[in-house]
């Protein structure tokens, strides 16, 4: 097998994307350094959306949103929400996931013209979702930022990248965002 | 920046090699999947050689060798070695490191013709050596097997790949050897 065979193979490269800058940097780095010219690679953009129980407790942005909604509805406890509020929160999260995936897709278009891009949004603990999707889809390479899911969530969930590196069977590329945004060099 | 820019850049890719099959698989995977056709990449093959204090205690192969030598010299305790024996052990380890690096270089030649290959053998705890070399040489990508340095050493040293993934600043590619030796697919 000689150099350039990567271009001839049909590799499935899964990139785990989240709201953090680091995962978008990881995607850009992958597009620049891993995807081969004229490759038959398929890029799978996966966003693991935390389940409702997690994001009501752990997501700072939504927590702010909840407080505002609760204030409007005179419900100070912050633990009991009406069905309407829960639906609104779900819609907020789904819309955020759609925007995130759209942003990632646009980044792919900006970098490469000929790579096939698939997208997936799955609900669950990111650690489990990513490992399950790698296995289910027969992924050849998993690409992810080294952090992801914010410091507050990480404190509860543990390190997503560490968990995945230990548990998936395919090669894992962990990309850290440098202080200066100087790709690959 | 478009696809194919990786070929135009001068990337330094450090591959940590050891005596295990997994690190050689990681090297092969890197040669097949990471090195771009007609690239200006420099491949740095690094073998972190455990210091004498570690390999006398932790290396199964050398332990066998020591027992044999000790038997010949009627020194049953296994803890007190003459200067000659220590020198012989050092030579054994250095020769093993040379053979390992030579094997890795030959693998590079078998896979690619035009990539620049540099080699380094450094003494010390593999975790420290790898992190220091990444920093010192300004490496762009670190490639390593997920295990390395054997289960016995790992039990004492901790996971080398986990440590490096957490501590180096560049992207880290952790490659696992599948049960079926089917590269990249």
UniProtKB/TrEMBL annotation, chains A, B:
All residue ranges annotated as the UspA domain in the record: 11-176
Q: Which is an annotated Pfam family here?
A: Usp
Q: What is this protein called?
A: UspA domain-containing protein
Per the UniProt record, the source organism is Citrus unshiu
Q: Give the top-rank taxon of the lineage listed in the UniProt record for this protein.
A: Eukaryota
PANTHER family found in the cross-reference section: ADENINE NUCLEOTIDE ALPHA HYDROLASES-LIKE SUPERFAMILY PROTEIN, OS05G0357525 PROTEIN
């Amino acid at each position: 097998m000689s150099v350039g065979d990567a271009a001839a193979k049909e590799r499935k490269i899964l990139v785990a994307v989240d709201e953090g800058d680091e995962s978008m940097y990881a995607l850009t780095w992958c597009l620049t350094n891993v995807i081969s010219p004229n490759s038959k690679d398929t890029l799978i953009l996966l966003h693991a959306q935390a389940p409702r129980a997690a994001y009501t407790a752990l997501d700072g942005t939504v927590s702010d949103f909840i407080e505002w909604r609760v204030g409007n509805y005179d419900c100070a406890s912050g633990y009991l929400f009406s069905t309407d509020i829960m639906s609104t929160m779900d819609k907020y999260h789904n819309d955020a996931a759609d925007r995130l995936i759209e942003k990632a897709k646009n980044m792919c278009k900006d970098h490469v013209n000929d790579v096939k891009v698939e997208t997936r949004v799955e609900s669950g603990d990111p650690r489990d979702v990513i490992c399950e999707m790698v296995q289910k889809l027969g992924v050849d390479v998993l690409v992810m930022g080294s952090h992801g899911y914010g410091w507050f969530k990480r404190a509860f969930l543990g390190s997503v990248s560490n968990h995945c590196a230990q548990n998936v069977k395919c090669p894992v590329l962990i990309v850290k965002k440098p202080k200066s945004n100087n790709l690959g060099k």
